[in-house]
Amino acid sequence: MRRTSAFALAAVLVGGATPVATAPASAAEAAPIGFASVTALGQSGTTGGAGGPEVTVSTAADFTAAIKADGPRVVRVQGMITLAAGMYDVSSDKTVIGVGANSGITGGGLNIGLPVSSVTTPPANAVHNVIIRNLVFRNASDDSINVQMFSHHVWIDHNDLSNGKDGLIDIKRGSSYVTVSWNHTHHHTKNMLLGHDDGNAAQDTGHLKVTYHHNFFDRTPQRNPRTRFGNPVHVFNNYYIANSDTGVACQNKSGCWIEGNYFENVEEPMTNSYAGPKGSIVERDNVYVNSGKPVVGGSVEDPRGYYAYTLDTPANVKTLVTQGAGTGKI
């Protein structure tokens, strides 16, 4: 495990101007904030299955049929559904949402994307406009959620994820315009990966634009997230607690704009020199409690060039996120 000396820093803000105090953010946005809200690639924001039929499923057969069906559809998951090991495809224009706080899937994971190939431009049939919300993910045989092959306009919101075999939320191979928000991740090591490989520049350069906000990174040692190539990657108003290896690791030409987060007992809150080629980090207005010194540098595109957003006051983020992240909050 990579470790550095820790600096016991009191609760301080480091970076630019102190943001204006705002009222507590709602933990139940009706539409995504961040890259999933942007009009691009022929898609105006992310609406999922809106306008399509709604179906409630409680068996593996009904669930897998509904998430891959053609056309827009809202798939409501009732209870915990056990899937055989493997990844299960979600097609375009879908909302997959849990009923209550204790519905979701165990045993398998969700794949949002075409099969892997060597194409380097977004295909016309790339999977797009998908919402995954209010679901419990447990014991996935591979990734809990995988987004790949130029998939775009994906909103992953208010889920509870743990105990997967590989990543909990991995985004790779040219995917873009994704928002990952208000998720609670715990009891897992390799948390979230953005860009799977240092040698995949041909597919990833200019893509992998992702927003991570108001997530609860609860003792997940690494990949919170670990990034490659994407620029900007916007990481704001997340709560980090006891991440024993590193918080954000921004690598290999990626650019991370990291602001308004709350790091508590995190030895290395962020770094652009974790392993392999370096990335760039702009760091602003983060709170550090008993945490290490951020390792930053380089230039990053300002996410405000893509969308508007409002920061919650960083000192309030711990309370906001612990109360609002995860299932049963929408």
UniProtKB/TrEMBL annotation:
SUPFAM superfamilies in the cross-refs? Pectin lyase-like
Alphabetically, the GO molecular function entries are: pectate lyase activity
Q: Where in the cell is it found?
A: Secreted
* Record keywords, A-Z: Carbohydrate metabolism, Lyase, Polysaccharide degradation, Secreted, Signal
Span of domain Pectate lyase: 50-269
A Gene Ontology biological process term: polysaccharide catabolic process
Question: What InterPro entries is this protein classified in?
Answer: Pec_lyase, Pectin_lyas_fold, Pectin_lyase_fold/virulence, PEL
- Does this UniProt record's set of keywords contain Cell division? no
Signal peptide interval: 1-23
Q: Please provide, in alphabetical order, the Gene Ontology terms of the cellular component aspect for this entry.
A: extracellular region
Which SMART domains does the entry link to? Amb_all
Its family remark reads: Belongs to the polysaccharide lyase 1 family.
Its protein name is Pectate lyase
Q: Which organism is it from?
A: Lentzea jiangxiensis
**Taxonomically, what lineage is the organism?**
Bacteria, Bacillati, Actinomycetota, Actinomycetes, Pseudonocardiales
